[in-house]
Design goal:
Strand 1 and strand 2 form a beta hairpin. 41% of the residues are buried. This protein is an alpha+beta fold and 368 residues long. It has a domain of 136 residues.
Length: 368
Amino acid sequence: MTLALGVAFAVACAPGFGVQEGSTDRLAGDADAVVIGETLSGVQTGNSVALVLSVIRAIKGDLAAGATLDVTGRVKLSLTGDLQSKHYGLWFLKRAGDHWAFIPVFPNCPTLNLGCFVPFSSTTSPGTVGTASLPATTGDRVALELVAALEQGYTSRSQLDTLARAFNGLGRRPFVSGLCRILRANPDPELRFIGLTGMLGGPDETSALAEIADNVNLIPKLKASAVLVPTLCGIRSTDPAAVLSLGRLSADPYTKRCAAMSLDFIHTRETLPFLARLLDSTDPKAREYAIQGLSRFVENLPIAEANDQITGKSHRPQGPTPYRTAETDRYSLANRWLRSDSETEYLRFWKSWWASVKNELGPAPKAE
């Protein structure tokens, strides 16, 4: 396993990794001003940053082009000295008395150019994107700027990563779906996969998943894979075609863990052959997800919802449980994690269980 692949496995399903859907929209809503701007000067003292920002154009607020703003903010990495380069891009700003404070695009941004704002490639002629409808909200206008910046070009992995994560943090609404389709048609595989990732959770999810599965061999080479792979963890579609694509992705070493996590939470009959195959995975976390998914199928538990921690709904069977026995209860991981010293026993049980029911539940769908 390469170092990059190992890191992807380690972070793919880590809590808080990536960007939650709608977080960029919320950021735009919380800001008093959203601008494309460039720093003229700046200094960092410890974790505090003070800079002069020149407004190129305003997306939200009444700031005029050419206005200069005193802006402060905080970064995680403590340093002291003048900022050595200009920083051009998308800034979310909040009024702070007689000056402004930047709202970090991602909490605890380590340095100014790593998540405090969205870096664009500096240009005198901003990019344009043809859309079927006009942007109706600040979030739509932000989305349009992000796509224009992506199509105009990126100069580093960190820039592309921030652009991709900010775009993936937009809500799955029709205007954004249209922009995703534009990116999906781009010949650059990085932009194409950013568009496909943005479709996950939206109306085009099933076809996007199929295209991702068809081109899974490209993913390890993509700079944008750090955004795509964790997003796969959140798929909850019960569409058999979507499940089939997840099954194909669960056979790939790079996407296996997040595909396994989604199959675990979906746990419909169509997921069972893929979950059973994952019992032999070389990834221990994928094996655990497989046992959990089989357990949840047997107990006929619903897919977990956002408020499940409060209601406990996903812990209650949603109907008959014909496959549930005292033995399946004993080896169930429906609502608990696996102890490492018990894994061999649990794997042996669930392999035996699948062998006893797979003919009744039907032949395995092809994952190729």
